[in-house]
From TrEMBL:
Name this protein carries in UniProt: Ribosomal protein uS12 methylthiotransferase RimO
PROSITE patterns linked to this entry: MTTASE_N, RADICAL_SAM, TRAM
GO MF term set: 4 iron, 4 sulfur cluster binding; aspartic acid methylthiotransferase activity; metal ion binding; protein methylthiotransferase activity
Functional description taken from the UniProt entry: Catalyzes the methylthiolation of an aspartic acid residue of ribosomal protein uS12.
Residues given in the record as [4Fe-4S] cluster 2 binding sites: C168, C172, C175
Catalysis: reaction(s): L-aspartate(89)-[ribosomal protein uS12]-hydrogen + (sulfur carrier)-SH + AH2 + 2 S-adenosyl-L-methionine = 3-methylsulfanyl-L-aspartate(89)-[ribosomal protein uS12]-hydrogen + (sulfur carrier)-H + 5'-deoxyadenosine + L-methionine + A + S-adenosyl-L-homocysteine + 2 H(+)
Swiss-Prot/TrEMBL cofactor(s): [4Fe-4S] cluster
Domain Radical SAM core: 154-386
Protein keywords: 4Fe-4S, Cytoplasm, Iron, Iron-sulfur, Metal-binding, Ribonucleoprotein, Ribosomal protein, S-adenosyl-L-methionine, Transferase
Organism listed in the record: Flavimaricola marinus
CDD domains from the UniProt entry: Radical_SAM (cd01335)
Taxonomic superkingdom: Bacteria
Amino acid sequence: MAQNPPNLRPDLAPRARFTETVRDGQPTIGMVSLGCPKALVDSERILTRLRAEGYAISPDYAGADAVIVNTCGFLDSAKAESLDAIGEALTENGKVIVTGCLGAEPDYIRAHHPRILAVTGPQQYEQVLDAVHATVPPSPDPFIDLLPATGVSLTPRHYSYLKISEGCNHACKFCIIPDMRGKLASRPAKAVLREAEKLVEAGVKELLVISQDTSAYGTDWPRDAGDRTAHMTNLARDLGSLGAWVRLHYVYPYPHVRDLIPLMADGLVLPYLDIPFQHAHPETLRRMARPAAAARTLDEIAAWRSVCPDITLRSTFIVGYPGETEEEFQTLLDWLDEAQLDRVGCFQYENVDGARSNALPNHVPAEVKQDRWDRFMEKAQAISEAKLTAKVGKVLDAIIDDIDEDGIATCRTKGDAPEIDGNLFIDEGTEGLSVGEIVQVEVDEAGEYDLWGRPSVNR
């Protein structure tokens, strides 16, 4: 029985999937999409435009006339991964166009890989298209090259990411995302809903709502646009009316988040909140330039659970932040004990070129960061195992992501997002089930991160 490793990086998107065939003579573009789900959506938009112009999409370097590498610049380790991917694409193909967050630093990229054809920053779709046109001219066949109404999707047919805004207005010292992606810019609600409706009509069963700061949606609009704190709640309610699962990611714990919880209790939105708390000690949060309200956050969590007892809370944290003392770290462990979060990811602090946290004093030695990460994950793992053990004997709704050749179905409950959370495995009685189906499963076994069960007799 497979288990998810406890050190999954919470900034990574699911692996892009390519399924189409290529006609004779069709120009072909390869795509390497790195980083978070927001970058994956950018890749989908680029490929949708290219597909509409007659290009085919290749899942590998060898079958492509050129390769686009959509990079990540979130951490120095992510930058190194992006540079490695660019180098691999140059070696295997030779014609490489770079875009994405690391593309905001073209000199840095060209210093390592001077042979690349072009560099563009995040969301610069037109510049990417211009670079592709200059390298591989389009050759559309209007009788054959039909584009799906929903565009090109890099995720399985039954779930899709729905990006509701770009950018961020926070000034966290460890993060350079606002420098790369700009200030908050919310998409019009009508455009978001129109996209969501098309996805659901095409068979999508789960909408994963993403942005850099989901709960800030609409707060950048003029004051005459109405109560700016209500826009996210209104959008969630409208999305919930479409009949698909709606999962909210990257939700900051603003006071108005409590207005979302009744929607979860009523079944309009999945009872799941992905909230990046980052730490719990007020001094660490102050050095991060984060709201230092860990105690009040515990009160909010208790209030959320009183309204929606089944809510699943996921969060990410940073250990070894500059200046973090053993006392501050212990406060984080104690807070985690009290908060009893369901799903937890953790980073060891890394310097990122351009981040203000680099200049902070008292950086934590690597061996101390590793020790704290180990201790943190040990506690988080124990909490996760206890939470999952309590689900044994219960019947849960689950969406089927895959059924392998041995008939084992990999599913997710309402409390599990793709790739970053656990799975529910059905290892018997899967005859007649299909990928994308939502089924009821009786849980009969629990591990540290995953569940196992069998289809309920009442399904």
